[in-house]
Design goal:
The chain is mostly helical. 42% of the residues lie in helices and 0% in strands.
């Protein structure tokens, strides 16, 4: 379905249930953090690591990851885009 310019794709907004679930989850936020701390201090190293990462991610945000970047390479300064017709172009400039 196409929308007219300025028309929202979701005119009624976010469903109320989303807000209610989020609000309910936040009521248990302190308890969840305390549980993560208890797991972090527990005897299972794998669970302790996962709990530590969850706490750090929520407290400081996930660390930025560079993907497929050579640390010695030069940063990209700009990008040039060339639009090309999907039709074949002959040497004389005509399409065919």
């Amino acid at each position: 379905m196409a929308f007219k310019p300025g028309q929202s794709g979701n005119p009624s907004g976010r469903p109320k249930v989303d807000f209610e679930v989020r609000q309910l989850a936040r009521e248990y936020g302190q308890e969840a953090i305390e549980k993560l701390v208890a797991i972090m201090r527990g005897d299972n190293p794998a669970l302790a690591k996962a709990a530590s990462e969850a706490l750090l991610d929520r407290g400081y945000g996930k660390p930025v990851q560079l993907v497929g970047v050579d640390p010695d390479s030069v940063l990209v300064q700009g990008i040039t885009v060339h639009f090309v017709s999907s039709e074949a172009t002959r040497e004389d400039g005509s399409h065919g």
